[in-house]
Amino acid sequence: MYIFVLKQTRISNLSKYDPLPLFIKIQSGDKQAFAELYDKYSGALYGICLSILLSEGEAQDALQDSFVKIWKNSPKYDPKKGSLFTWMLNISRNTCIDRYRKKSKMQLVEIQNEEGAVSKKRNHFSETKVNHIGLRELTGKLVPDQIEIIDYLYYKGYTQQETSDALELPLGTVKTRARIAIRELRKYFGTT
Amino acid sequence: MNIEDYISSGIIDRYVCGDVTPQEKQEVECMSHIYPEILNELRNVSSAFEGLAEVSSTPPPPSLKTSILEAIEHVEQESLLSVEKTGDISIQKIAKSLPNDDQNHDDKITIGIYKIAAVLFVVLSAGASYLYIDSKSDLEASNERLSSLESELEKEQSSNSDQIAGLEYTLSESSSAINDLATELEIVKDPSTFKIALKGTDLSPKALASVYFNPNKGEIYIEGNQLDDLAESNDYQLWAIVDGKPVDMGVFNPKLGDLSQLQKVDFIENPQAFAITIEPAGGSVNPTLEKMIVLGTVDVS
């Protein structure tokens, strides 16, 4: 299964953009400012939704839920706890992972019913190796083992323990691979 | 508490991926308040994922924007500010007082109308109509006044919450800036830190940068003191000369938004000199020597 999407060619340089003045307006209910925030960040958040849910329809629903949550919880955002972009990314990621888990639970039940035996694997869904946009960006930069770890820990939202079970690797190996993968990720995508 | 060990335990990696217990989450947040190195690590890891999200950016269908803007019309923002709560009580007080006044007013008018009716019949109809219109317009006027008071109050609340949000932001920025400066001072005052001045070359004689080199702690910091802004298509790149060969220390932006201007780079041993060149955005594998703007030799005797 291969998701074909038109890739955004403009370089938005979000790392250099300071969204806080805009966000302060949003916290006071300014809907025009919210529309501007949407214009600026919807691409990045939609990309994440696509990479986690692997379906445009699901990703669009999740993106809507995420932006509604961002609007609703905007007064609660605290700049001391971290960057706004990360705050919004986490809202999107969590929304998507919750949906993804509900979907996989349903599929796990299907497997049990058909075969009459308890499947040891987490779910059928995760077995499909989908080359989503996030992974495509990592190809050529990180080695396959590292890409797989990022996929499980970040995009699938597995804990390190769950990843260790799913990939049948010792927990220590998962930790080490994660450390190295993130270090490599910083090299290519970090701002320092 | 050993910061290096804390970081290498991988707890920050797990925090960024959401793979932490509530206690661990609190702990990381606490630690990042106390130790700037941990805050820095947290920022670096988060920014790597932000960068990944940015390059994977995909525009959603335009109809989704409309749908979302429509959806927020029906959703209230979660308010935490107490100013709003007292505001609500005040509105209720105003709303409660006015109807009572109207009731007394209405009673008086009714009595008045009956009194007039008892005296003159012809004058009564004109008078009654006049009083009726008058009382009705008084009620309307009261209602209008209530609405305008309500909207005045709303405006004040909104500007108050704006102010508070603005002040909170300023306060958090200030305390974070103070933390940054405290760290910077520590680094500079450390007796085992060597300061290496990178002076301007012929290409840019006024350029200036500094490297703070601490072989004891294994830390190196770069500070751009006098470096011009570059076009979007270029970046400054730092190099260390080791064994006569240039080693890439990374691309950096000398103008940080914060007060603190020191940026940490990876540690290397035995640098003989440091230099900065102007390279195409993203940096180069080898330095463009003709674009070297500052150079400083290391004397660690």
Question: What integer value in Å does the Rg of chain A equal?
Answer: 18 Å
The average pLDDT of chain B is: 81
Distance between the termini of chain A: 36 Å
H and E order of chain A: HHHHHHHHH
- Biggest interface pair, counts: A-B, 72 and 58 residues
Percentage of residues in helical conformation of chain B = 40-55%
Count every helix of chain B, treating DSSP H or I runs of 4 or more residues as helices. Answer: 7
Structure overview:
- Helices cover about 70% and strands about 0% of the residues of chain A.
- By secondary structure, chain A is an all-alpha fold.
- Chain A is globular.
- Chain A starts with 19 loop residues before the first helix and ends with a helix.
- In chain B, a hairpin with a 7-residue loop joins strand 1 (about 195-200) and strand 2 (about 210-215).
- At the A-B interface, helix 1, helix 2, helix 3, helix 4 and helix 6 of A face helix 2, helix 4, helix 5 and helix 7 of B.
What's the arrangement of secondary structure elements?
The complex is a heterodimer of chains A (192) and B (301).
Chain A: H1 20-27, H2 31-53, H3 56-73, H4 84-115, H5 124-127, H6 133-138, H7 144-155, H8 160-167, H9 171-189
Chain B: H1 3-8, H2 11-16, H3 22-34, H4 36-55, H5 62-71, H6 82-119, H7 121-189, E1 194-200, E2 208-214, E3 219-226, E4 234-242, E5 245-252, E6 263-265, E7 273-280, E8 292-297
Antiparallel strand pairs in B: 1-2, 1-8, 2-3, 3-6, 4-5, 4-7, 7-8
Helix pairs in contact in B: 3-4, 6-7
Brief synopsis:
By secondary structure, chain A is mainly α. Chain A contains 9 helices and no strands. The model of chain A is unreliable at 4-12 and 118-127 (pLDDT under 50).
